[in-house]
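Appendix C reproduces, verbatim, an entry submitted by the partner laboratory led by Prof. M.T., so that reviewers can inspect both the input and the predicted structure.
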Amino acid sequence: MSFAFLPFYTGDYLRDTRHLTPMRHGVYIMLLFHCWDQKGPIPLDEQECAGIANCRSHDEVDALRYVLERFFIRMEDGWYNKRMQREIERAHAIGLKRKIAGAKGFQAKAKHLLSKRQAKAKQVPLQPQPQLQPELQKEKSTTLFGEAPNVSARDVKTQAREVLAFLNEKAGRRYQPVPENLNLIEARLKSGATIEELRAVVAKKCREWIGDAKMSQFLRPKTLFNATNFANYQGELRAVS
């Protein structure tokens, strides 16, 4: 999904950056543009950062280091700007909500057209349909006009493993794909949550808790994917949209 535009709040920006030199302003803005375009953090490698901000001279590299230390938070997977990451998550949540609403609207139109056609159609004898093999019947959609089919047990398990791997990557943990870690994730997927929502909750809580010695211990499947906790974390994501 591509974002249409960058919400750049000049008042907020100038309030926090009036002390910057023109060189540091340029570096900061180039880094923010990269975060928005890539929907993620600045890489940790200094040479890559210098390339992103077009820093070549010693003074320009010093400006880059100052901006990163002053306005970004270093995490295991890159440098995060708190305000920019919040805007990225907000844009993602809005896009996801619009996508879901569009799909529901299409389904409603499709059902309406189908009912009108059925009302006008003459009754004709139907030809017997060949029976699917039992293993194929389980994954066959029973809806019409593109409604989402039931997610197979195999897909749920695969997605649950992906979410657990994502948690390990973001939190720096080594949770194993055993039933006590996967069952809660699978339960959230089966209840209607998408893999994107689960990943968004993981990313948000890692940013909030990773530097807090007291809270970082709760970056675990038991806490994040408990039914009640997860519903609250989803609500926090939607609150910004």
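The mean pLDDT is 83. Additional entries are available on request from the coordinating office.
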